[in-house]
Each structure stands twice: as structure tokens, then as C-alpha cells.
């Protein structure tokens, strides 16, 4: 996996915090929660997309694809929130919660599996050197 530089890492963490605060406060009806969530989701997804994988391990590439889908679903959740707030489109109910739940499951799953697979790949390469 490509490492993010210091500024990108700060944007990534700030995006995650804004995303969390925006999603948690959206239930209260606070209008600015949507904007916090949207900025956070866009920053989080952008930095996650920048941290690509250049290797040839099929499992990690598959997990990376799932991670990208999760990041895009976080941004789609912002669109569903906008449809609910501004009363347009087809998603005027709680569809955003379902989209957010699917995104969270994908993000959480890949957050644990990718480092484990990278460690396996690293140990395999170390064993092949001898």
C-alpha cells in the first residue's frame, strides 16, 4: 500500500472525525451536520483513494476494491442525506442509514483484513529469500 504523507494523513484523520461527527449529529436535525458529514466523507474517500496498492496479490487487490466501494458509498450517503434534507429525488426517508451501514461494514472489514494480508505477504517474501 502506498503511504500517505503527513498532510494527506492529517486530511484523512480530519475527514474521518468530521464524518463521524456529521453522521452522529444528523439524527438531531442540525442542518450543518450534513455539511460536516459531506466534507468529511469527501476528504476521507479522496485520501483513501490516493493510498493505492501496486502489488500483484489478488486477495489484497480484491480487498482494496471493497475498500474503494465502501469509500464511494460514504459519499453516496451524503447524496441520500441531501435528498432527505432538501426534499428532492427518491431517497426522502432513512435510505442514507442503509447506505452508511453497508459502507461501514465494508470499511471495517477491509480495515482489519488488509493489514493482515499485507503481513502475510511480507512474511511470504521473507521466507522466499532464504
Strand elements, count: 0
* Model regions low in confidence, pLDDT < 50 over at least 5 residues: none
Helix content: over 70%
* Rg, Å, rounded: 17 Å
Number of helices: 4
- Overall SS class: mainly alpha
**Amino-to-carboxy terminus distance:** 24 Å
* Integer count of domains: 1
Q: What is the typical, i.e. mean, pLDDT?
A: 93
Outline type: elongated
Largest sheet: none
Q: What's a quick, concise take on this entry?
A:
With 130 residues, the protein is an all-alpha fold.
How would the blueprint of this fold be written?
Layout: H1 6-26, H2 31-50, H3 58-86, H4 95-129
Helix pairs in contact: 1-2, 2-3, 3-4
Describe the structure.
- The chain has 130 residues and is mainly α.
- The chain has one domain (6-129).
- It is built from 4 helices and no strands.
- Helix 1 packs antiparallel against helix 2, helix 2 packs antiparallel against helix 3 (58-86) and helix 3 packs antiparallel against helix 4 (95-129).
- It starts with 5 loop residues before the first helix and ends with a helix.
Amino acid at each position: 500500500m502506498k503511504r500517505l504523507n503527513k498532510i494527506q494523513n492529517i486530511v484523512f484523520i480530519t475527514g474521518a472525525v468530521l464524518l463521524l461527527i456529521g453522521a452522529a449529529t444528523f439524527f438531531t436535525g442540525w442542518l450543518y451536520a450534513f455539511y460536516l458529514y459531506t466534507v468529511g466523507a469527501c476528504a476521507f474517500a479522496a485520501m483513501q483513494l490516493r493510498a493505492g496498492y501496486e502489488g500483484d496479490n489478488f486477495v489484497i487487490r480484491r480487498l482494496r476494491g471493497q475498500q474503494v466501494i465502501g469509500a464511494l458509498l460514504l459519499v453516496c450517503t451524503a447524496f441520500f442525506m441531501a435528498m432527505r434534507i432538501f426534499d428532492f429525488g427518491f431517497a426522502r426517508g432513512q435510505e442514507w442509514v442503509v447506505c452508511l451501514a453497508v459502507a461501514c461494514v465494508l470499511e471495517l472489514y477491509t480495515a482489519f483484513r488488509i493489514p493482515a494480508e499485507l503481513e502475510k505477504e511480507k512474511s511470504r517474501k521473507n521466507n522466499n529469500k532464504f
